[in-house]
Design brief:
By secondary structure, the protein is mostly helical. It has five helices and no strands. The radius of gyration is 16 Å and the shape is elongated.
Length: 126
């Protein structure tokens, strides 16, 4: 049962991670996701690259849900991604409401990932 809970948590957070990947193909979504317009090509490239990296973390979570040997790497990578954004948000200047929403989502999903890790640990019979 613990492993099932961990896998479900990984898939749910994976979905959250994959959604911003759409920005890689539709850069105009940056206004909706982050409250910023991509006025120049360099910023567009950087944000699209960020979108791809976020989607890759989501794909890694999906892979970890399906392949037990990838679970620790998937959870650690996803948690590092979320905690780094939260830390940057916490120490940085005020940002758009949309970017603050991203931090709040990460503040919700990071504990879900920790819960998944604990559930996996409990599922090993320790």
């Amino acid at each position: 049962m613990w492993r099932v809970l961990a896998v479900v948590a990984m898939v749910l957070v994976g979905v959250v991670q994959v959604l911003p990947g759409a920005l890689a193909f539709v850069p105009s979504l940056s206004q909706r996701f982050y409250g910023v317009a991509l006025g120049d090509e360099t910023m567009s490239l950087l944000m699209r690259h960020r979108a791809v990296l976020l989607a890759l973390v989501g794909v890694l979570l999906f892979a970890g849900a399906a392949i037990p040997s990838l679970r620790v790497a998937a959870l650690a990578t996803a948690l590092a991604s979320k905690l780094s954004y939260i830390a940057l948000y916490a120490v940085g200047p005020e940002v758009t409401a949309e970017a603050a929403r991203v931090a709040r989502v990460d503040m919700i999903t990071a504990p879900v990932l920790v819960g998944a890790a604990v559930a996996l640990w409990l599922g090993t019979g320790r």
